[in-house]
Amino acid sequence: MKQKEFLARLQTAGLDISPTSLSRLEGQYRLVQDYEVVAIAKALDVSVRELLGETSE
């Protein structure tokens, strides 16, 4: 998915983030805030647990 599309999905999920800030997240130059994790999971249509790599056992 292109960054522009992902930014639009994040905005729809309630997170207004700049392209620069998203690039810094992708490059691991800044930490992800807890509220951003929720919005990212919504934008990707996955659960927070799945996003964080947790599996249900």
Could you walk me through the main structural features you see in this protein, from its secondary elements to its overall organization?
- With 57 residues, the chain is an all-alpha fold.
- It has four helices and no strands.
- The longest helix has 11 residues.
- It is globular, with a radius of gyration of 11 Å.
- It starts with a helix and ends in a 6-residue tail after the last helix.
Helix content: 55-70%
Number of helices in the DSSP assignment: 4
Structural class, please? Answer: mainly alpha
> What's the story with the biggest beta sheet?
none
Strand content: under 5%
Low-confidence stretches: none
Rounded to the nearest angstrom, the distance between the terminal CA atoms is 30 Å
Order of helices and strands: HHHH
Shape: globular
What's the quick description here?
The protein has 57 residues and is mainly α.
Keyword list:
mainly alpha, 4 helices
What's the topology here?
Blueprint: H1 3-12, H2 19-26, H3 34-44, H4 48-51
Helix pairs in contact: 1-3
